[in-house]
Amino acid sequence: xxxxxxxxxxxxxxxMCTPALAETTQEVVNKAPNGLALTxxxxxxxxxxxxCNITEQTVRDTADSMISSGMRDAGYEYVVIDxxxxxxxxxxxxxxxxxQKFPSGxxxxxxxxxxxxxxxxxxxxxxxLTCGGRPGSQGxxxxxxxxxxxxxxxxxxxxxxxxxxxxxxxxxxxxxxxLRSSGRPIVFSMCEWGTAKPWxxxxxxxxxxxxxxxxxxxxxxxxxxxxxxxxVTDIVDQNEPLWPFAGPGHWxxxxxxxxGNGGMTPAEYRAHFSLWxxxxxxxxxxxxxxxxxxxxxSILLNKEVIAVDQDxxxxxxxxxxxxxxxxxxxxxxAGGARALLLFNRGETAATIRATxxxxxxxxxxxxxxxxLWAHKAAGRWTGSLxxxxxxxxxxxxxxxx
Length: 401
Hints:
- By secondary structure, this protein is an alpha/beta fold.
- 28% of the residues lie in helices and 22% in strands.
- The chain is built from twelve helices and 18 strands.
- It has helices at residues 4-21, 25-28, 47-50, 56-68, 71-74, 106-115, 141-151, 168-180, 232-239, 266-278, 294-300, 303-309, and strands spanning 42-45, 78-80, 86-89, 95-97, 119-125, 155-159, 187-190, 208-210, 251-253, 283-285, 318-323, 326-332, 338-344, 350-355, 367-371, 376-381, 384-389, 393-400.
- The strands form four sheets. Strands 9-8-7-6-5-2-1-10 form an eight-stranded parallel sheet. The protein has a six-stranded antiparallel sheet with strand order 11-12-13-18-15-16, with helices on one face. A two-stranded antiparallel sheet has the order 3-4.
- A hairpin with a 5-residue loop joins β12 and β13 (338-344).
- α10 (266-278) packs parallel to α11 (294-300).
- The termini are far apart.
């Protein structure tokens, strides 16, 4: 017996649908960028300084200090509460805030931050529990995304604790889809620690993705009590090779800044900040902004270094030369200029020389050189540049035709 017209039509329709049916969840959702974070996000996150000792008052004080210190005007716009803000879920499964720590509620806090011309960020986790043991978002993705939108959240950091055997691509695609469905534009910060190599698949899922474990407030020394955390130089070496995967709307994230938290010298903090800017990393301050000293302020408010990080071309800089403890880094900038970093990992001062080949320029190119930490012109580029760099320090320049 023949299929008949209806049977043939159904068979043809099934054949047309078969390729789509073969696609997995993460392949069929989130195929387009969300249009957010066209430059690396800048702001403040509570974790590095306050961890679980976070309160509504601390967040309000920080927002106030971001105005009075000049940080908002320098480009820092997100105020992000990390872990431990959560209370329990209500009878319908909706998340609530810890009423003792946040007596006014999250919506009121978000409104206060928005009234200051800042944006508000919050934290959750792809597992049943957060890293601090609070309720995670697994099984509540759409509920949580809707709650965040109603509260006025602009940024979500999404961690990876207590996830069991979840598939990272599926888990992050699910929350990305939930955020898109919430009706509010929310920057999506994926904190998966680089385990599943998100740089290979998350370009249109998250706006930024962690490439390493947590940062540790040290230049080059590990801490046995925090075996999961890494000093600055370890993180730099893990993040640097991933430079081809970064760009507007999708950034490699080597974790938040430790500038001002006391574990490094001013020279080391300048190196930390400069390297993050060269790597087009998110600049999320992690210190006590309300009580920072002049040295910390001078680093975090260096607008010339910030401009390198925020350059609209959106290319992540990378290492172009290394010999022993001496390195040369280059970052292409919009308009044909270059950012140049001379980095000394060693324990003694070192003279480091950059050449035209390292900048990918003709040897006879003439250009203006500006020292971004001295805040002054540094002569003309005539084929090379050489300077002495302090131990654990950097010299940073722009070279512009």
